[in-house]
Structures are given as structure tokens and as C-alpha cells.
Specification:
Helix content: 40-55%
Order of helices and strands: EEHEEHHH
Strand content: 15-25%
Structural class: alpha+beta
Distance between the termini: 24 Å
Number of strands: 4
Number of helices: 4
Length: 79
């Protein structure tokens, strides 16, 4: 299950806070642009492959993009 990953000092930490509706739309846009396979379960949780989730640097990068309005405006998925 996807959780936002943030930098705390020199560590990357997964957030336990609920994801807002706006952030959920943003991270789905990032995943679509980056061709990351994902799906939502019946509770609305976003599921991504374990090999992607285990790469915290990559997940942190996706989280950072989802929080960057300029990136979101200039990176629209082509589907």
C-alpha cells in the first residue's frame, strides 16, 4: 500500500497520516505519468507493486512530485 514518504533529517520515513483527496489525485497523476501500475482497493487505499514500495528513494521522489504544483502542471499523463 502506498504511503507518502518524507525526508526527516537523513532518513526517509513513511507517513501514517491519512491522505487527502487532493493528494490522492496528485499521486495518481504522478503514477500515471511515470507508468507506475497502481489500483485502489475497496477502502480507497492506493496499492503499488512491492518492488516499487521497497525503493524508498523512488517513493520519496513520487511524493515530492505529488506535492509540487509546478511539476503537476507541466507533467500531464498522455493517456
Amino acid at each position: 500500500m502506498y504511503k507518502p514518504v518524507y525526508r526527516e533529517g537523513d532518513r526517509l520515513v513513511a507517513s501514517e497520516d491519512p491522505i487527502s483527496r487532493e493528494f490522492k489525485q496528485n499521486i495518481k497523476q504522478v503514477f500515471e505519468y511515470e507508468n507506475v501500475p497502481y489500483k485502489e482497493d475497496s477502502t480507497g487505499a492506493i496499492l503499488i507493486p512491492q518492488d516499487i514500495w521497497s525503493d524508498r528513494d523512488t517513493v520519496w521522489n513520487y511524493t515530492t512530485k505529488a506535492n509540487d504544483p509546478d511539476w503537476l502542471k507541466t507533467h500531464i499523463p498522455s493517456n
